[in-house]
Amino acid sequence: MNSLDRIKIEGFKSIKEMDLELRPLNILIGANGSGKSNFLSLLKMVNRMIEENLRIFVAQAGGADMLLYYGSKNTERMKIRLQFGKSYYETAFLPTTTELLAFQDETVHLHNENINRRPYDKNLGSGHEETLLNKSVKSGKHIYNIMKGWKAYHFHDTSFSAKIKKTAYINNNRGLQDDGSNLAPYLYLLRERYGEYYENIIKTIHLVAPFFEDFVLEPEEYNPETIRLQWKERKSDKIFNADSFSDGTLRFICLTILLLQPDKFLPQTVIIDEPELGLHPYAIKLLAGIIRSISPIRQFIISTQSTIFIDEFSPEDIIHEFETMLFVTPEKISGLFPEQKAEISKDIQNVRKNFNNSPETINDNVETSPSHRIADIIKKHTQRKYEKIIHGTKALIDEDMTKIRRECPHFNQWIGKLENLQPHSK
Ligand SMILES: Nc1ncnc2c1ncn2[C@@H]1O[C@H](COP(=O)(O)OP(=O)(O)OP(=O)(O)O)[C@@H](O)[C@H]1O
Ligand SMILES: [Mg+2]
User: Fold this and answer.
1) 349 is a domain residue
2) What pTM, to 2 d.p., does this model score?
3) Could you say which of 150, 171, 278, 410 would form a disulfide bridge with 269 (CB–CB 3.0 to 4.6 Å)?
């Protein structure tokens, strides 16, 4: 599987700097405004970049200034490094006078014994506004093909004017589009050519929407090159259009089609922002179960706010902030700086108090995550940089977990799950 193993970002939206190792299944959780959607939006930007539609992406986002961390006045350039196995793609963007992004640098590093005996670096130059990957030598094309295999889906728009509900060209069926806008032609293709998959999709929709019978998918009578989403209820012959679906049902349908389509059409890496939006708890559990069952063959990067969704996964799939736990025992982290212990401890206590002594709720905007706060407090009193590996682990290495578990109910839940994986003693 050509999965995305590691991603480094600098200067994108609310992300000043980030270095994240990814696993086959990644569930991002965090407070509102903590940057989950921004991270997924960066992956979407990479999608558009690969399609050579970066200019359109930037323009639709409102220009380069909106994409750079606190605008171009604060951030000179944006950097991205995407790693798959030992190979990586690296780029830096600068804003242009026309408010777009230009490549300051675009580099591929190919390290794949099946293609080149030795690692191979290629600089694709600078000044261009669309990627040169697909036009480059073999090594660039190889990386281009891997990066084409990621797709970020967003089925949030189910409003009256949503593309999902509009008529679409019948031959617009080469894979489900990321906003579901070709749902009708894609379903038509599945029904005509991949009947088994289509049946499975219908059966799954029945579990959540028992009133639904089937889609009515026929080319439009007066314009047979086009098709639109229609459906029938059980116990009635009346034909409804997509507008009559509830928002949650329509989103569930999109997600079911995405996940249960023939695997040859399913991207290598599937990225979904808040799949739970508007869904009934039962539907959320069902979706989580489907994702879990396909995760051995595909990589998933998913952001969520739903505890029902999170509960369906193992603790190691969840990406959460370690520093939350440092707020449970302020004396431990402050004890690492004996001369400023009292001041550091007092500041940490104050943060705790402002959040009702509930460390897992600490965060009210992108700059105030637990790790930012700890780093700021340490800097303020010691002029030293907070080092996660040294300070963080030292502070908690011999910590009694009972207190942490009591004050961090989410964390406690995950640990409970891990414990339940142990064989029961007789
Ligand atoms: N160019 C930018 N520079 C700095 N901050 C930005 C920029 N663009 C957006 N933001 C900030 O990003 C935050 C939104 O982040 P994001 O949408 O990723 O949150 P989220 O974690 O998905 O939250 P939710 O759970 O509510 O969906 C906003 O607070 C906004 O101020
Ligand atoms: Mg979000």
Assistant:
1) yes
2) 0.79
3) 150
